[in-house]
Backbone:
């Protein structure tokens, strides 16, 4: 059983500070510097977790921040990783995924139902549509890790960008050597390691101190390199936030991950990886047990045994899988210390004691063909079993970076094969073991620094290890199974064999069918053994199978780190504060904030919008249209640019006049519209839709560069404000504020004039989107407040109301004006939208002209038509479908109730065969009911357009 | 080292000029223009009330910014009224901010992926990039006598000004600084 030993030099604890905490409601004690896992290991509870599927009793396996069974619920926060989370006084720690607590978990019954839960059972059993909802609810209750509290306080974890010349991932011996070498070459180095401290993992103290004292090296302990992205951009996850590190070159010194031996009951509490036991002992003074048995297949096993023995831990036996161990001196040292060495044997079964933990290990002779001789088994009593049978290279990040690997039969691990520019590998991940890691790190550091422009790469070449640090098949069959390959997903050997035999016999298919490698450890303990099993089933070598595709994240990353801050860029017109003062109710319009309507005491929403519409129709209204795109074009070829880019004629537009502009793409599809005003012989000013300004500007820049015209474009969308002042009284009120002559003969419909209004320089465009006499007033943003206020003040006595987006939508719909992107879609052309009047087909060229000719010959596939409904009819919504003889014949694109017209009106895209005036239609609304409508002529209001062309009142 | 601050720079007039002959025309009118694209010059102490800053945005577009006591922009605006060929006015109503003080780079690494600390001041570089999702122009400035760390002038489209100020200001506050605006 694990227990705390006396203090030793170099441990990571401060034993003068005792910290009390609770686990599963019971109080325990640890020290400052302990992690949750080390404190629990020392404090005594035998069980730390229940496994995911069978709810088997579990404890520490790797102590390397990979185990799902050392994830805890801590103070209401789920999935806290106990191996690397520092203990705090008062912590309340609980196991995940239990029903009724860890000790009496009701779901442990599932272990007995294992025969009924084979690999892939959910694919086979729950295909009944009727029963599936019940199974789904059951699984959601039974599975999942941790409980999320919806009342939890939001934790801000702002992301940061980082920059360095050389990024070194891994601060073991080769990583430290690489970092120091790169720094000595003059590079700015960032050294990252997921351990809580940069301790070198067995490297000389001088190397660690060198890295700590170097001004050129930034140390990032407790930080995981979670993903590699293009151009050496690496996501670094620290305990508090994500850093997006951009490096000029990267050294992967990510090391190797110890792999478990696979035998019956290898998941019992007390069975763990030898490297984890060594870390627990050296850093936290926690011994794995009183009487330990080591399962060995490499030199590291013996070195660990010597370390345990030196700290007073009894190693009763070393079970050596190989017939002959390597490393003569350490082996002899172990024997001299009284450890029984049993060669050519494998663990057959871990024996469960009455306390639910390991109480012994049964072993049996193990030949070169992995055959067990059950006639010669032996039992060794113990309270801890350590496994040191091999390693898997941590190559996932290197693979994400575009590197490739090959399987080395000599080393029994994957090693880097080819690396893209700027990527370097070092140390055990590179197949270089023992003291040669330092030289390999220096080589990689020099090459990485040289790639970043510092120093020279040198020509060192370090040979890979000549010993085999990993057993080729540390997997022992057992008729009663429970020999676990994947501890996260409770997968046994037979699960993987069965999956392969069912046809899921590639590494990718095996992963997805069995879920091997899909738990929190992401295959770090299981992928290698799974590959070995698959290779045996298929009768091929591991090299022929290959690894599954490596993708970010390498290690689970809390969603809060990916979220970072919430930045939602929002645009506001310069009179935003004035809207707020008028009680604007806001709505998003793309990335703009716009008034939907203005709230007035005593009116509900519908009443306010109706009143705003009525004000425009009967007196005057004022709307902020500053979100419209506004572009200026200057130069001798300005008119020619517009002629080519738009469907209309602009080169011959008179100075002082405007014209509607329709823009198509090469396929003849409508992409934007606006109003073009000619200010001078070589200057135009035009508007675009709110959402189209950036796209149109970019496209015009591209076309201008392509055509090589002599003109320049200026995007003043944000730098100019714009208002629409419209209604029968608009002219009379406006004339009092401006020096521009507004009389009909001086300023006819569609004219543009420049002058002053309320002391500010303005451009007035007489246009008619809402169908009343009106003026668009364009002014520099910095003068907009005073102009707006002057209009508000001047219109107050005339019953003027500011009106918002909703009222404008009603007004323009009454006029039958379409909105690009609402009433048109990604395929609508001018024929379908009844906009051919704006298309000058006789021009020599405009973008989309050729396509329009083809479309004219083909005829429209749909038509945009007006529709009307009786007022009592339930109002359809935009995108409700028009149904004709059981088939879809069209859809509603815009719809509203019109008080002025005493009926509901709208626009719809309709099959041409139905697009005749008076044709009855059926529209399917929410719930499936059908409402009746009729095709109607548009404009609905003032069909002769008389109101916007002449004043009806002074 | 001075305290970290973000200040809205309202007491400046701005004007843009672009076109194939814009640089030549400005020089004829006594404006010193930067020789290299994406760089800037200034006439006097950058914080003086009449200082003129000239930024070259690409090859043929210029942003001019002057303190309210200056007279150059008024002269340029008047001269542009004659519509010289190949020279076009650009309305500039930008919002401008100055970010400076201890920890300025800590703020910038949270909002922008440009390595501002690596910029060399001697070249007087101008950076066009995105900051918190907003297109901005940024120039590094030499630190004032007592500042220690360099300062940054940041311009953005005025319709993004409130968002940029509030968002950048929130980051500055979290980093222990303050956000101020000077009234026009």
Residues:
């Amino acid at each position: 059983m694990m227990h705390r030993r006396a203090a030793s030099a170099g441990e990571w604890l401060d034993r003068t500070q005792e910290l009390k905490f609770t686990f599963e409601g019971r109080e325990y004690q640890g020290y400052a510097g302990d992690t949750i896992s080390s404190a629990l290991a020392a404090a005594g509870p035998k069980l730390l977790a229940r496994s995911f599927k069978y709810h088997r009793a579990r404890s520490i396996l790797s102590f390397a921040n990979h185990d799902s069974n050392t994830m805890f619920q801590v103070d209401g926060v789920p999935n806290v990783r106990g191996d690397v989370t520092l203990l705090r006084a008062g912590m309340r720690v609980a196991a995940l995924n239990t029903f009724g607590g860890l000790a009496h978990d009701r779901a442990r019954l599932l272990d007995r139902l294992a025969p009924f839960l084979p690999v892939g059972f959910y694919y086979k059993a729950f295909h009944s549509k009727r029963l599936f909802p019940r199974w789904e609810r059951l699984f959601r209750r039974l599975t999942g890790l941790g409980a999320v509290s919806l009342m939890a306080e939001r934790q801000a974890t702002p992301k940061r960008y980082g920059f360095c010349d050389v990024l070194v991932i891994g601060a073991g011996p080769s990583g430290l050597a690489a970092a120091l070498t790169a720094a000595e070459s003059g590079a700015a180095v960032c050294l990252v390691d997921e351990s809580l401290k940069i301790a070198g993992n067995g490297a000389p103290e001088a190397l660690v101190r060198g890295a700590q004292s170097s001004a050129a090296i930034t140390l990032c302990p407790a930080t995981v390199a979670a993903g590699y992205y293009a151009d050496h951009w690496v996501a670094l996850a620290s305990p508090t936030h994500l850093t997006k590190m951009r490096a000029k070159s990267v050294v992967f010194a990510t090391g190797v991950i110890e792999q478990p031996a696979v035998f019956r009951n290898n998941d019992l509490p007390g069975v763990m990886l030898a490297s984890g036991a060594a870390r627990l002992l050296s850093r936290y003074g926690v011994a794995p047990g009183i009487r330990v048995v080591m399962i060995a297949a490499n030199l590291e096993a013996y070195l660990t045994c010597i370390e345990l023995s030196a700290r007073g831990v009894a190693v009763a036996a070393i079970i050596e899988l190989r017939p002959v161990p390597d490393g003569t001196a350490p082996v002899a040292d172990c024997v001299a210390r009284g450890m029984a060495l049993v060669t050519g044997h494998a663990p057959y079964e871990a024996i469960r004691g009455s306390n639910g933990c390991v109480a012994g290990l049964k072993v049996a002779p193990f030949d070169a063909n992995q055959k067990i001789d059950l006639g010669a088994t032996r039992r060794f009593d113990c309270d801890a079993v350590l496994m040191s049978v091999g390693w898997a290279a941590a190559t996932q990040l290197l693979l994400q970076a575009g590197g490739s690997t090959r399987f080395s039969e000599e080393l029994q691990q994957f090693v880097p094969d080819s690396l893209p520019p700027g990527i370097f590998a070092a140390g055990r991940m590179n197949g270089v073991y023992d003291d040669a890691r330092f030289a390999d790190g220096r080589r990689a550091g020099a090459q990485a620094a040289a790639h970043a422009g510092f120093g020279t790469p040198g020509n060192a070449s370090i040979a890979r290890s000549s010993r085999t640090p990993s057993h080729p098949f540390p997997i022992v069959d057992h008729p009663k199974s429970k020999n676990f390959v994947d501890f996260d997903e409770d997968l046994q050997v037979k699960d993987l064999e069965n999956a392969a035999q069912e046809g899921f016999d590639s590494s990718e298919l095996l992963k997805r069918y069995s879920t091997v490698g899909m738990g929190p450890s992401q295959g770090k303990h299981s992928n290698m053994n799974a590959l070995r099993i698959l290779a045996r089933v298929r009768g091929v070598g591991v090299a022929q199978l290959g690894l599954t595709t490596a993708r970010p994240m390498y290690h689970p990353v809390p969603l809060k780190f990916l979220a970072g801050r919430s930045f939602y860029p929002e645009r506001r017109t310069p009179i935003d504060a004035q809207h707020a003062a008028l009680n604007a109710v806001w709505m998003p319009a793309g990335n703009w904030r716009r008034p939907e309507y203005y709230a007035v005491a005593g009116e509900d929403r519908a009443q306010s919008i109706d009143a705003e519409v009525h004000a425009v129709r009967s007196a005057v209204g004022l709307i902020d249209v500053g979100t419209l795109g506004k572009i200026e074009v200057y130069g001798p070829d300005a008119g020619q640019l517009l002629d080519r880019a738009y469907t209309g004629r602009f080169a011959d537009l008179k100075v002082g006049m405007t014209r509607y502009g329709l823009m198509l793409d090469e396929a003849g599809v409508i992409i934007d519209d606006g109003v073009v005003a000619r200010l001078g012989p070589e200057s135009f000013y035009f508007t675009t839709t709110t959402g189209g300004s950036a796209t149109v500007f970019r496209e015009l820049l591209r076309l201008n560069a392509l055509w090589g015209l002599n003109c320049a474009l200026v995007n003043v969308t944000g730098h100019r404000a714009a208002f629409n002042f419209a209604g029968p009284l608009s002219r009379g009120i406006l004339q009092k504020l401006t020096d521009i002559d507004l009389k009909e003969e001086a300023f006819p419909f569609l004219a543009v004039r420049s002058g002053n209004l309320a002391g500010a320089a303005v451009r007035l465009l007489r246009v008619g989107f809402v169908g009343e006499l009106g003026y668009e007033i364009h002014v520099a943003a910095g003068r907009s407040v005073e102009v707006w206020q002057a209009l508000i003040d001047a219109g107050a006595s005339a019953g003027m109301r500011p009106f918002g987006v909703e009222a404008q939508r009603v007004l323009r719909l009454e006029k039958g004006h379409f909105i690009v992107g609402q009433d048109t879609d990604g395929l609508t052309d001018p024929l379908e939208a009844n906009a051919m009047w704006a298309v000058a087909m006789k021009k020599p060229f405009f973008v989309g002209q050729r396509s329009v000719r083809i479309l004219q010959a083909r005829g429209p596939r749909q038509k945009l038509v007006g529709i009307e409904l009786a007022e009592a009819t339930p109002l359809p919504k935009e995108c409700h479908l028009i149904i004709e003889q059981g088939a879809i014949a069209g859809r509603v694109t815009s719809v509203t109730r019109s008080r002025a017209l005493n009926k509901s009106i709208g626009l719809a895209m309709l099959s041409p065969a139905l697009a005749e005036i008076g044709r009855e239609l059926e529209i399917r609304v929410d719930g499936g009911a059908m409402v009746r409508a009729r095709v109607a002529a548009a404009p609905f209001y003032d069909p002769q357009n008389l109101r916007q062309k002449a004043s009806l009142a002074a | 080292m001075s305290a970290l601050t973000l200040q809205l720079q309202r007491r400046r007039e701005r004007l843009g000029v672009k076109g194939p002959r814009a640089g030549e025309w400005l020089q004829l009118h006594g404006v010193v223009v930067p020789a290299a694209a994406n760089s800037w010059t200034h006439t006097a102490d950058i914080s003086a009330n009449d200082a003129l800053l000239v930024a070259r945005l690409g090859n043929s577009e210029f942003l001019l910014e002057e303190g309210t006591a200056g007279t150059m922009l008024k002269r340029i605006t008047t001269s542009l009224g004659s519509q010289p060929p190949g020279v076009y006015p650009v309305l500039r109503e930008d919002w401008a901010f100055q970010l400076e003080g201890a920890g300025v780079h800590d703020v910038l690494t949270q909002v922008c992926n440009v390595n501002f600390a690596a910029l060399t001041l001697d070249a007087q570089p101008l950076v066009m990039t995105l900051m918190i999702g907003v297109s901005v122009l940024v120039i590094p400035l030499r630190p004032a006598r007592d500042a220690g760390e360099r300062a940054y002038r940041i311009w953005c489209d005025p319709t993004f000004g409130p968002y940029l100020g509030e968002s950048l200001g929130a980051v500055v506050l979290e980093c222990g600084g303050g956000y101020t605006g000077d009234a026009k």
In short: Residues 643 and 650 of chain A are 6 Å apart (CA to CA). The two ends of chain A are 99 Å apart (CA to CA).
